[in-house]
Design a protein that fits this description.
By secondary structure, the chain is an alpha+beta fold. Helices cover 59% and strands 11% of the residues.
């Protein structure tokens, strides 16, 4: 997975999905390297980019059209379930008159997520739960999240805010300020402002996922380059005492950009999803200037990163191989993930 072949595979994915990368690397095309193509497909799949990558290759390369068109056809089936989920949520919440937004969903590149996250207002949460109950939609609660699953739909997670390490990181007013609309699968969807979208991406990548996917990197790069009111972004992070952490995260994004887009040769491979190293996590705790975090919270969080790493490795293996894990083992792993995250103060 690592080494020169991995560098070439990352470059190949970026060449087809990002026009900016193509301009700086116009002559990239390893026709006689099937191993690089296979790695590129795996990287695209692991990072939510398989559909768009395959679509661009099929449109541009006649020699590769047949195999990549088959991948596109397979991936398009997933969009049916995503579209049905979006229509269901829009209809349900519209009929009930509740406020909601799709969060962590729009990334400017078409892709299908594993689940759909929606933000609801704290003061309406009880009414939302009651409305779902009236419709015989069974909510599932654990110490970290609230979600429901319906036949032919993706899992839907309900958020009331972004809370990690027992702390708040964003104002409710800020999250709901200046929402946008985006066209996703032909459905009009309400999503957060550029500023709220960027900060929620940053904080969830760091403290939720504990890694930065290539899809999120590309969206963060897009927002940083053109879309943000950075004074508002910095003001919000300063209010909650994590502005230095925000700047560290932006520095990592810029370093990755410099190495991938502007470096003549990549000295070391950048693995995506980009897992934050332990030393950086320790700096993050130091960067929470006005947010005292006890050792009882720090230790479970650090331990939770190890649990997440195991879970992430399982996800990669399940996508990349024919590995089948019994449902009982998957349930045990998920319970471990949620339990440890609850110890470290995560909740939605």
């Amino acid at each position: 997975m690592f080494g020169r072949g991995f560098n070439e595979a990352i470059s190949l994915v970026l060449y087809y999905i990002d026009d900016e990368y193509r301009k700086t690397h116009p002559n990239l095309f390893p026709r006689n390297k099937p191993d690089v193509w296979l790695k590129a497909i795996r990287i695209a799949k692991e990072n939510g980019l398989l559909y768009y990558f395959a679509k661009r290759v099929a449109e541009e390369e006649k020699v590769l059209r047949d195999p990549f068109e088959k991948i596109v056809e397979q991936e398009e089936r997933n969009f049916i379930k995503l579209k049905q989920t979006l229509e269901f949520i829009n209809s349900l919440f519209g009929q009930e008159g509740f406020n909601f937004m799709f969060i962590k969903l729009y990334r400017s590149i078409p892709y299908t997520p594993r689940d759909v996250d929606i933000l609801i207002r704290k003061e309406e949460s009880h009414q939302v739960f009651m409305a779902l109950k009236r419709r015989n939609i069974k909510l599932k609660f654990n110490s970290v999240e609230t979600h429901f699953e319906e036949k032919d739909l993706l899992k839907v997670d309900l958020y009331k805010g972004f809370h990690y390490l027992t702390l708040d990181f964003l104002d409710d007013e800020f999250l709901w300020k200046n929402p946008r609309t985006a066209n996703i699968c032909g459905i009009k969807c309400f999503i957060p402002s550029y500023e709220a979208d960027f900060l929620s991406l940053i904080i969830h990548s760091l403290l939720g996922h504990r890694y930065l996917s290539l899809l999120d990197f590309l969206y963060a790069k897009l927002l940083l380059n053109s879309k943000l009111n950075f004074d508002e972004v910095l003001s919000q992070s300063k209010k909650y005492g994590w502005d230095s952490t925000l700047l560290m995260m932006i520095s990592i994004i810029k370093d990755i950009y410099q190495e991938l887009y502007l470096g003549a040769n990549i000295a070391k491979p950048i693995n995506f999803p980009y897992v934050f190293p332990p030393g950086f996590i320790l700096k993050v705790f130091q960067g929470f200037s006005n947010m005292p975090i006890s050792m009882e919270i720090k230790l479970p969080f650090i331990f939770s990163t190890l649990v997440d790493k195991v879970f992430h490795m399982y996800q990669i293996l399940s996508m990349s191989t024919s590995l089948k894990v019994p449902d009982e083992a998957k349930d045990m792993l998920m319970k471990a993930v949620y339990k440890v995250r609850s110890w470290s103060g995560d909740y939605k």
